[in-house]
Amino acid sequence: MKQIIASVTLLMLIGSPAHAIQKCQDSEGKWHYGDAAVEDCENSKITTLNNRGMVVETEAAPKSEEELAAERAAEQAAAEQAALAEAELEERRRILSIYETEKDIQRQLDNQINSVQSNIEVQKAHQRNLSTHISNYKTQLASTNSEASKQKLTQDIADAEEKIAVSNNELKELEAQKRAIQDKFFKERELYLRYKKSASSGGSPSRD
Fold first, then answer.
1. Which of 64, 92, 120, 185 is the most exposed place for a label (fewest CB within 10 A)?
2. pLDDT tens, 38-71?
3. Chain centre to alpha carbon of residue 59
4. Residue 48 neighbours by CB under 8 Å, 6+ apart
5. 10 Å Cβ neighbour count for 155?
6. Number of structural domains found in the chain
7. Does residue 120 sit in the same domain as residue 41?
C-alpha cells in the first residue's frame, strides 16, 4: 500500500507543471521527493528529474569523514613520493655534474682527508710541545725553594694541562670530521656508480 501511495505521489509530482523534482533515499532507506529531498537527505545522493521523469542531474552524497581523511592521506603520500623523486633527481644531477670519473671522487677525498690530517698533526705537535713544557716545569718545581717560583710553576703546569685538554677536544672533532668525509665520499662513490650505470644502460640522461 505504501509503495502504491509513493508511486502515485511520484506520478503526481512528475505530471505537475513544476520544472523539476528531486528524490533521494535517506540513511534508513526511505525515499523523499520534492523540496523535502534536500532537507531530509543531506548525507545522501540527490537525483533531479524533469517533468517527464527523466534524470537531469545527480548530486553525489557528501563524503564521510573517513573518506575525506583517506583522500587527505593519499594526497599527502603522493606529495611525499613526488618530493622524494625530485630530491633524487636533483642528487643525480649534482653528482654527475661534479664528477667526470670515479678518480675525481678519490682525488677530492684525498684532498679533504689530507687537509684534516694536517690539522691533526698540528694539534699533536702542539701537545708534544706542551708536554715538554710540563716536564720542564715539574723539574724546576722540584728543585726550587722559592714560594713565588713554586706558585708560578704550579700555575704554568695547570695552564699547560688545560691547553692539552682543549687540544684533545679539537683532536676528537678533527677525527670526527675525517670519518664524516670518508662516509660522505663512500656514499658519493656509490651514487656515482649507480647513476653512471643507469645512464649507460639507457636510463634518464646524466645531465640536463
1. 64
2. 555 666 676 776 667 677 777 776 777 887 788 8
3. 40
4. 20, 21, 22, 55, 56, 57, 58, 59
5. 11
6. 2
7. no
Reading the block at residue 5, the C-alpha cell is 501511495
Cell of 179: 670519518
Q: What is the CATH number of the domain that holds 110?
A: 1.10.287
The overall average pLDDT reported for the chain is: 81
Percentage of the chain lying above the pLDDT 70 cut? 72
Please give the single-letter amino acid code of residue 79. A
Longest dimension (CA), the chain: 126
Q: Which domain holds residue 180?
A: 102-195
Helix, strand, coil distribution of the chain in percent, nearest 5:
70, 10, 20
CB-CB neighbours of 58 under 10 Å: 9
Q: What is the pLDDT of residues 109-161, one digit of tens each?
A: 999 999 999 999 999 999 999 999 999 999 999 999 999 999 999 999 999 99
C-alpha dist (Å) from residue 130 to 126, 134, 169, 173, 194? 6, 6, 15, 20, 49
Indicate the pTM of the whole model. Answer: 0.56
For 92, the enclosing helix (H) or strand (E) is: helix 65-98
Determine the straight-line distance between the first and last CA of the chain, rounded to whole angstroms.
75
Of 59, 77, 94, which residue sits at a domain end? 59
- Pick from 35, 28, 46: nearest CA to 13: 35
User: Which helix (H) or strand (E) element contains residue 33?
Assistant: strand 31-33
